[in-house]
Amino acid sequence: MKIHEYQAKALLREFGVAVPRGDVADSPERAHEIARALGGRVVVKAQVHAGGRGKAGGIQLAESPAAAEAAAKQLLGMRLRTPQTPPEGIEVRRVLVEEASPVRAELYLAVTLDRARSTEVVMASQAGGMEIEEVAARSPEKILREWAHPALGLQPFQARRLAFGLGLAGEQQKAGGTLAQNLFACYRAKDCSLAELNPLVVTTDGRVLALDAKLTFDDNALFRHPDVTALRDVHEELPLDVEASRYGLNYIKLDGSVGCMVNGAGLAMATMDIVQLAGGEPANFLDVGGGASPEQIENAFRILSSDPSVKAVFINVFGGILRCDRLAAGVIAAVRKLGLKLPVVVRMEGTNVELGRKMLAESGLALTTATDMGDGAQKVVELARAAR
Amino acid sequence: MILVDKRTRVVVPGITGREGAFHAARCKDYGTTVVGGVTPGKGGTTHEGFPVWNTVAEAVATEGATCALIFVPPAAAADAIMEAAAAGVPLVVCITEGIPVADMVRAKEFLSRTTSRLVGPNCPGLITPGQAKVGIMPGHIHREGHVGVVSRSGTLTYEVVHQLTTRGIGQSTCVGIGGDPVTGTSFVDVLRLFNDDPETHAIMLIGEIGGSAEEEAAAFIRAHVRKPVVAFIAGQTAPPGRRMGHAGAIIAGGRGTAAEKMRALEAAGARLVPSPADMGKQVAATLGTA
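Above: the input entities. Below: the structure tokens describing the complete assembly.
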């Protein structure tokens, strides 16, 4: 789960990670008030769940409270388009108004999981403000890494090494080391999957501050963090994704015209792949899970059909726990209830497959059946093309 | 065959749950020796014909359990893994999906101080056809034979097994290593076992986007594996930055793409199958020419 920058900074402040003074505003008037209370130059930052805001005009400098109000007025309600947003952009519903920090050095500091080592890695770089992937690709030697002990965490000597590696000295080295340890503490305490400060800055008056902050959380651990769960902003998620998550379906909208409904994540990905190999484009990833009920199949079918770019549907199920007769019952019920507005290709295999096929054949519905994955993909791509 | 056979004695932590009870019975139907289950507080009772103990240690002491098949809900699953390892069970298989990553980081460290092997979590388990089924896969699609199957996926593994069996090609053992970012057993671990197993003549590897387990597998294949390896990588069309169902299936920071993994495996001498419909066909061709 992602949260906004202002929420991340509030959480980090609780853990002793230094961030600029500031507050969040949902109106130009409130932005004015915050700017006046802060005094001096401020930065007005659009709050959306996407990076690349600066280049897209989502971050503005304001010399006065009146200028902050004007900036907020311009940003609030606009659709911000960055390389990380959908093409239509995301509506800005809040802005963060912060004191402007005169920057001497831009650094990078982040905590994430190192899957190969099965523990957290803390990464630091003097090349702050850039995409870390670019730094990693071009000059990997510029990234320092310290691996936390799985049980004992990040030790003070490791935090010191990171601070020295960031080129910090004296009081700033101490502040940087403490900040790294506090960032790590927040990561562990809140079950984060990423805690990234980019940039972490040294100001001209010598403070070490997180100028930007991104926290994402392990969805599987949200059950033990009601405070974090409360920070979810569904406005930042696509409506179909939100609806699918309500029914326990794994759904991800894509750009193509072939709707896919599959049981199991691996088979669902493989189904998208085979649709493309057959010359089509998948409209979505949809995993109905190992033991989908007829209700779930109905909901999945409805969500798929409500995407206007879907021209044909490919149901590909390998019945293990999910028996083919139950799948067939779910599909028949869904089609009877919602109507068959789109061509549907069904390929199923596994437990009770003969019964499932018989049920589909006797249903009288104009479903197309396929003998295997390859056959199904060919058929659904042809149908999607014909429907366009 | 590797890891499980007719001698395997399975205890099922979480047996009083719906999934646990259902699959314990299916494993038993297949011919696996399921000695009973564990649910704290229900020790001394029986559940659907299976004896229930309070602790895994009791199941080991009374029935000599050699394998724990875990269906405990996510919040308590890492604890159940550690309990089974502490009780000295050599093979711990965790089916549970949705365990917090941080719990698995701790559990894996705990396991490293024991002699137990963990398979999973978030996996279908493993099966040696004709010997033992320790997991949730449909047993009847398998057939005894000589192809070792290792996979991060569940249903996609059933798909390849079906393709093999319908061609008359049997399997030595099929191992689902799981779709989570932190798993107990890696591709490399299973490749090493298959490479040393005289019953396994060829290996089918099914990977997916995210992480670097396939790249590590490629390096191991190049250096050590002397048997033909056929590989398929799911997620060639997956967009970056989105988690594709499995917690571990995500292209992050441009890394972990299917293309990268396919290149690494191909360079290591594995035969890559571009289409998931052709996995069985490619194994057949490989065995015919091997």
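Note for the figure: The domain at 137-287 of chain B is CATH 3.40.50.261 (Rossmann fold).
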